[in-house]
Amino acid sequence: MNDSIWLGIVILVVAIAVLFIVLYFTSQISMVRPSECSSSTGTYGVRPNKTGTVVKSLNNLTLGEAIIVCDEDPSCNLFSYDCVGKSMYILDATKPIVDAVILDLYQSRIQS
Fold first, then answer.
1. Cβ 108 vs Cβ 94: under 8 Å
2. How many Å apart are CA 98 and CA 90, to the nearest integer?
């Protein structure tokens, strides 16, 4: 009887150890090391589902065209883009940012 209790304890400890080892290696596989992370090199940062106070709106633009419009407008460093309606909304950078449903906010990384 004593031997079977000890055998059960040893099997339980080994099973727990194996479980922790498997969990450790699984977490290491899915983890991206900072040195392997790609850096963001675009001129605009994106904040999904955000917008602000609209100063000017333009319709029927692709995202690429919206970026060109913002790059050419000295007062534009913040805009929202609606990818469904293909609309661009130049925003007032001094007003608060708010939640939106289908808009993504693009903010210039280059401040003029």
1. no
2. 14
